[in-house]
Design a protein that fits this description.
The complex is a heterodimer. By secondary structure, chain A is mainly α. Chain A is 74% helix and 0% strand. Chain B is elongated. In chain B, helix 3 packs across helix 4 (111-124), helix 3 runs parallel beside helix 5 and helix 8 crosses helix 11. By secondary structure, chain B is α/β, with parallel strands linked by helices. Classes of the chains: A mainly alpha, B alpha/beta. Chains A and B meet through helix 1, helix 2, helix 6, helix 7 and helix 13 of A and helix 2 and helix 3 of B.
């Protein structure tokens, strides 16, 4: 255009690199997390209550249902990896709340009008949430051990559980953000995440082995991501193949559980993640 | 030789639902100008500003901001502008300092300059003493000032302010005005939208009046007010419609005012004239001599309503279809329609 000749281009600030943008956003969300002690503690309290009540109330009965009733495996140890996944689920379910808050207090738009990469903005937020989930999972594993569980595989197993926890959080984080974009409302986002959280936990291999449950539950559990998260974490804690929904023998030992479980989680993550990214992208273009 | 901070040509923005929020706007804002964009709710002010700052894509026309095309080079535009949205945009969970610091980081202000920049900005907006308090504890005026500070961290040569003082009390408003004048004096181009003629009058070198998605007038505040035809004498009368009609006839046919327009109001008449102040008393005397009872009178400067009436032929608080504010249609272009993706603020 000819007009450009007459209008000198203003000097650009240059902004940050992609990684720089990710860090800027991760720092803000990390800072906000430390300001939200209630959320941090709240997401831990429920799994702790579950762990204590379940082991006390059902412990004796449940021990008969696990490990073919041999008694070699206590219920604390069986339950702990599933509780770690519950922590991941509860924490991930809150992700959309941050998005709703940002839209409400104008930070969403402020960030959109800044030169930061929009992808980096969401990656940064997710990175902060991942760090939080790892910390929470390690805390709950430590607490579980104090309360009588055994992690057969030691520190390596615990770190493996944290990694599974990250992988397991992605799809539910995506779901929570989809809820946030659709409802634009805190209460609805929380409700939507909680409504799904408990049926998913119960209709899965999280609390009891599937062969102890009725057929219809076994069928639904096979399509429930919680089953795969709980199985992978449990295999890593017990150091043995625990998967009942798919019979895999190709990898040997715990990998017969971990490999297929991780594969299923990756697929679910990609599908729901893509949906969330599409919806966030649309919300960004509509520019609130 | 021209140097335009904003150069917009035939800009249109039609929402998915067919609403023409911006309907062919041409706009040139020279570098260094304090430009006011004046119009009632729903006239298309916010939609225009969101298009200029790259938040919305124009459906027609071309826009360059600081020499960069808003559609092709949005990042360059974003790096070189500051934007203060209509609704205060700050993170209430962070302190004032952290809010400004986040903005510094978002705009890539070098680490070595950050601390000084943050102190300088917090000082400028009088928040230095509460720098380490969380923004959720702040009053509306303090939040606005913090928001303004975050919009300036990268020393942008052009700043967009969308109704920056709506909802503020007069003292908070005056402080912001002073602050905007200061950065304009330092060479920053400012594009401000407002519903208040007084605000535009106080701050702006030039005003564009927008109505129903189009710019209907563009001039200096003084010139716009001149178009209204002077100040306005409101006269309230007792005895109802017949008295009002008679008073209007007297005001029109007497030779008190050399040049006046007379209109009927709810309880009397309004006389617009350059001599409203100097000759108003003569009219009041004339009305009394005719046996009319004047129950109140007031001489005032023209308001947005008067400018609007003069320029557009309809009142500012009416839409083209005659509906009044508060009715859904008034909000359409700025709010409802902006929910293209189910969005709301």
């Amino acid at each position: 255009m000819s007009r450009d000749d007459a209008t000198p281009r203003r000097e650009r600030t240059g902004g940050n690199t992609f990684v720089g943008d990710v860090l800027v956003n991760a720092r803000r969300w990390g800072l906000k997390a430390t300001r939200n002690r209630f959320f941090l503690v709240g997401t831990l309290v429920q799994p702790i209550v579950f762990f204590v009540l379940f082991t006390q109330v059902f412990g004796r009965v449940a021990t008969g249902a696990i490990d073919s009733g041999s008694g070699a495996l206590n219920y604390e140890t069986f339950l702990l990896p599933a509780i770690a996944m519950q922590v991941s689920l509860a924490s991930a379910g809150g992700s959309g709340i941050g998005l709703v808050n940002d839209v409400e207090n104008g930070m969403f738009e402020k960030v959109l009008v800044s030169p930061m990469s929009r992808a980096a903005v969401f990656v940064g937020k997710s990175a902060a949430e991942v760090v939080l989930i790892v910390v929470q999972i390690l805390l709950i594993l430590g607490l579980g051990v104090l309360l009588g569980a055994t992690i057969q595989t030691g520190i390596a197993g615990a770190l493996g559980v944290a990694l599974v926890g990250i992988l397991f959080s992605v799809w539910f984080t995506a779901y929570s953000n989809v809820l946030a974009v659709i409802t634009r409302d805190q209460e609805s986002t929380i409700l939507g995440a909680n409504l799904l959280q408990f049926p998913l936990l119960f209709v899965s291999s999280a609390f009891l082995p599937l062969d102890a449950m009725p057929g219809w539950i076994q069928t639904i559990a096979a399509f429930n991501p919680v089953t795969y998260g709980a199985d992978a974490a449990r295999a890593l804690v017990l150091g043995q193949d625990v998967m009942q929904v798919i019979e895999v023998t190709a990898f040997g030992g715990i990998w017969n559980t971990v490999v297929p479980a991780v594969a299923v989680l990756l697929v679910v993550d990609v599908v729901l993640g893509a949906l969330a990214v599409t919806m966030l992208h649309r919300a960004s273009r509509a520019a609130v | 030789m021209s140097d335009f901070a904003i150069d917009a040509d035939g800009v249109e923005l039609v929402y998915d639902d067919g609403t023409r929020a911006v309907d062919g706007i041409d706009l040139r804002v020279p570098t260094g100008e304090f430009f006011g964009f004046l119009g009632p709710n729903g006239a298309g002010k916010t939609t225009t500003i969101k298009t200029l700052v790259t938040l919305l894509h124009p459906t027609g026309g071309t826009i360059t901001v600081n020499g960069y095309d808003v559609v092709d080079e949005p990042r360059a535009v974003r790096e070189t502008i500051g934007y203060m949205a209509q609704e205060t945009s700050i993170d209430p969970e962070l302190t004032a300092r952290e809010n400004v610091s986040f903005a510094c980081q978002a705009y890539g202000v070098p680490r070595s300059e950050r601390r000084d920049r943050i102190d300088e900005l917090l000082d400028l907006v009088d928040l230095a003493e509460v720098a380490d308090k969380r923004a959720e504890e702040f009053s509306g005026g303090m939040r606005k000032r913090l928001d303004a500070a975050t919009a300036l961290v990268h020393r942008p040569p052009l700043v967009f302010l969308d109704e920056p003082t709506t909802g503020l009390d007069p003292s908070a408003r005056n402080r912001l005005w002073e602050y905007f004048r200061r950065i304009n004096d330092q060479g920053t181009t400012i594009f401000l939208t407002t519903q208040y003629l007084e605000e535009a009058d106080q701050l702006c070198d030039r005003i564009g009046v927008i109505d129903d998605g189009r710019i209907v007038a563009s001039d200096s505040p003084a010139e716009l007010k001149r178009e209204v035809g002077g100040e306005i004498l409101d006269v309230e009368l007792a005895d109802g419609e017949a008295a009002t009609e008679r008073a209007a006839t007297i005001a029109r046919e007497s030779d008190i005012f050399a040049d006046a327009s007379v209109s009927l109001t709810a309880d009397g008449i309004a006389v617009t004239s350059p001599e409203a102040r100097s000759r108003g008393t003569d009219l009041l005397v004339a009305l009394r001599d005719e046996g009319l009872t004047v129950t109140g009178f007031n001489v005032r400067a023209p308001t947005l309503d008067d400018v609007f009436l003069a320029i557009t032929g309809h009142a500012a608080d009416e839409n083209a279809d005659g509906s009044l504010p508060g009715e859904a249609s008034t909000e359409m272009p700025d709010d409802v329609a902006a929910t293209g993706g189910g969005a709301e603020r």
